[in-house]
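Thread title: Can someone regenerate the structure for this chain?

I was given the following input by a collaborator and told the matching structure tokens would be attached. They weren't. Posting the sequence so someone can regenerate them.
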Amino acid sequence: MEFTTAGVVGAGVMGVGVAQNLAQTGHRVVLVDVNDEVLDRARAELRTSLRAFALFNREAAVDPADVFDRIEFTTDYELLAKADFVVENVTEDWNIKKEVYERIDRIVRPEVIFAVNTSAISITRVGSVTSRPERVVGMHFMNPVPMKPMVEVIRGYHTTDATIDTARRFLAELGKDCVVVQDVPGFVSNRVLMLTINEAVFLVQDGVAPAADVDRIFKTCFDHKMGPLETADLIGLDTILKSVEVLYESFNDDKYRPAPLLKKMVAAGLLGRKSGEGFHKYR
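Best answer:
Regenerated them for you:
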């Protein structure tokens, strides 16, 4: 199958990144979300992201007008009928994801693969609400999507080898490699990362060190490009909280108990970069 047109469901930070990566590599994109306000924000985020990509990849000739021309911003899910591959990026909330998959399963051609861009939700569970569980695969992109060369691919219980092979080919067209892992909550990356971030929040909450110093230790002692709390701000503290809650519910293990400070900050609207303030300030 040729991947001429890709459907991208969810026009948040990750969805915009996936759409940009697809458009930059010559694909047509149908980017779907629930209302025009979300799509207007997506257009603005795309412009910002394209400027950043051009700044850090001066050798890559990227024409913003051409990228925009390849992306169809829409609230009409029916347009996904022309997609040759679908990447879903909606919020980490099972009830929302379940409703989305039940909806798109009736629209998208039966042979088309669904890639679940999730940090913690079971791929097997997603597949169970579709008529094509063998064609449902996890595809955990990292942020910012156009600049990250590796994707964590997750095999659900029913995911076939043919689906995995097609997912590899799809990612190769985006200029990405992948590592295939099994379907357990959090997979590899977030089972470790979310626990690390949550523990870093506890350190700030308990007065062991301020956020800047926690991040500085990781960057200077371990040569990490970003500290755990800077990473949390980049991902979004609301997404971090939902992911930790999924791990806590899935494993029933107190080590995944969300830090009260994390819950408080999300309730206060301090979500990180997207709100202008999280553990650090961005305005």
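The radius of gyration is 19 Å.
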